[in-house]
Automatic annotation (TrEMBL):
Presence of the UniProt keyword Ribonucleoprotein in the record: no
UniProt pathway: Cofactor biosynthesis; molybdopterin biosynthesis
Biological role stated in the UniProt entry: Catalyzes the insertion of molybdate into adenylated molybdopterin with the concomitant release of AMP.
Reaction(s) catalysed (UniProt annotation): adenylyl-molybdopterin + molybdate = Mo-molybdopterin + AMP + H(+)
Protein name, as recorded: Molybdopterin molybdenumtransferase
Stretches assigned to coiled coil: none
């Protein structure tokens, strides 16, 4: 079935449409419980509520003395106050006595504040003489006490569903004693490269042949994005082989990515085969350079009723990556259950002039660089040096951003601000 697919879609229209097609995994059905140590980079399937107050009890933020504020509030250099040190409380120990008027407890960072005390005085602000401590300045009331529950209350949400777990999140889960983490299962992404001219990188290259580089880049991008890449390799330009590849990808993956064969050439079979296989073709070309031929389709699920999202990316290596970054990456994030799914844009000055033919929204590849020192330099976009052509993957190396030259604009001057997609 074809659905207005012959239109030339603007990038933002295509993005919005793909967004609707990319239905997230089901947090109940598509989940697993993973040991904490294996959960880095996975997407949390449930909100984790705190089983404890943080801090778990009132504790000291400093090495020093736990005192009663009422005892020391009048203290000054002229009127020092001396307190009796009646106990010592290292971290991890329960205070054995409560502090009465005129008394103090020696205390260390993280140790429980004893009953009766309400304020901590830093060691550096005291003088110790035997079993007495002398204060020559009044502390603030409740100084250096980290109060129970002041960071987080038990029963309140600690981490929301849909976040991709990072190092700090693992620290929080560990502290909350959540050792089995509910995460979404991996999103499975099948990848194949089409073209009779393609050979794998370890084969001697014959005249006319091209090394398949797209499979490697796409698999790496899928993995970097936190999904499972199923690499099918090279599929020749034959209807039967392509059909077999699509059907087997339909069986094993949630998303299918192919590169090549989506333009108008005699061997560009992808769209026609998708229709034969009962797909709905949503998009066939986008007004984007590089990356005009882009097929977006949905195929029926095999083995379950989840529709498979199909992206037929253009074969030119840069076009393939640019369309992945602009359209596939946010869709994979959304499908994976991520609450922050979407392109990350920044507006920064460009270090050099940027050019476009003006007929399509153009993406210039390069690097956003951050100032190394505080010399008044700004974050800026530096286009990759050399010839920017959709077949030239050489200067694509180390790309971390795509600068967007809007439709109809032919030049953005050096120093002008430009919208960049962080990739
Ligand atoms: N008459 C027209 N010709 C073309 C048009 C058009 O509108 N009318 N569009 C051009 C644009 S823009 C692009 S982009 C390409 C995309 O074509 P396909 O997706 O069908 O890609 P192929 O023809 O299969 O390959 C294009 C190019 O890329 C090389 N390639 C393919 N796969 C890989 C791979 N896995 N690794 C590395 N390189 C690959 C392939 O050898 C070709 O050189 O169509 C234009 N033509
Ligand atoms: O869109 Mo093609 O990707 O310009 O080379």
């Amino acid at each position: 079935m074809v659905c207005n697919s012959n239109a030339l879609w603007s990038a933002s229209e295509a993005e919005a449409h793909i967004n609707q097609l990319a239905q997230p995994l089901d947090p109940q059905r598509d989940r697993e419980l993973l040991p904490l140590t294996q959960s880095l980079g996975r997407v949390l399937a449930d909100t984790v509520t705190s089983p404890l107050d943080f801090p778990h009890w009132d504790n000291s933020a400093m090495d020093g003395y736990a005192v009663r504020f009422a005892d020391v509030q009048q203290c000054s250099a002229d009127r020092p106050i001396t307190l009796a040190v009646v106990t010592e409380i290292p971290a991890g120990k329960i205070p054995q006595v409560s502090i009465k008027a005129g008394q103090a407890a020696r205390i260390f960072t993280g140790a429980m504040v004893p009953l009766g005390a309400d304020t901590i005085v830093m060691q550096e602000d005291t003088e110790r003489e035997g079993d007495r401590v002398i204060l020559r300045q009044a502390p603030q009331p409740q100084a250096f006490v980290r109060h129970r529950g002041s960071f987080q209350r038990s029963g309140e949400p600690l981490l929301p569903a849909g976040i991709q777990l990072q190092a700090a999140d693992l620290a929080i889960l560990a502290a909350a004693q959540c050792t089995q983490v509910p995460v979404y299962r991996w999103l499975r992404v099948a990848i194949f490269a089409t073209g009779d001219e393609l050979v794998p990188p370890d084969r001697p290259l014959q005249p006319g042949q091209i090394v398949d580089s797209n499979s490697y880049a796409l698999a790496a991008l899928v993995q970097q994005g936190g999904a499972l890449a199923q690499v099918f390799g090279i599929v020749p330009d034959s209807r039967a082989d392509l059909r077999r590849a699509i059907i087997s990808a339909q069986e094993s993956a949630d998303v299918i990515l192919s590169s090549g064969g989506v333009s108008v050439g005699d061997y560009d079979y992808i769209d026609e085969l998708l229709q034969d296989l009962g797909a709905t073709l949503h998009i066939r070309s986008v007004a984007v350079k590089p990356g005009k031929p882009l097929t977006v389709a949905t195929l029926p699920g095999v083995g379950d009723d989840r529709p498979r999202l199909y992206f037929g990316l253009p074969g030119n290596p840069v076009s393939s990556l640019v369309t992945f970054w602009r359209f596939v990456q946010p869709a994979l994030q959304r499908l994976s259950g991520r609450r922050d799914a979407g392109c990350r844009w920044l507006t920064v000055p460009t270090a050099e002039d940027l050019h476009s033919g003006g007929g399509r929204e153009t993406y210039v590849w390069g690097r956003v660089t951050w100032p190394q020192g505080g010399n008044g330099e700004e974050i800026q976009f530096n286009p990759a040096p050399g010839y920017q052509n959709s077949a030239n993957l050489v200067n694509l190396a180390q790309t971390n951003a795509l600068a967007q030259v809007p439709l109809g604009v032919k030049r953005i001057g050096a120093g002008d601000r430009v919208k960049v997609l962080l990739v």
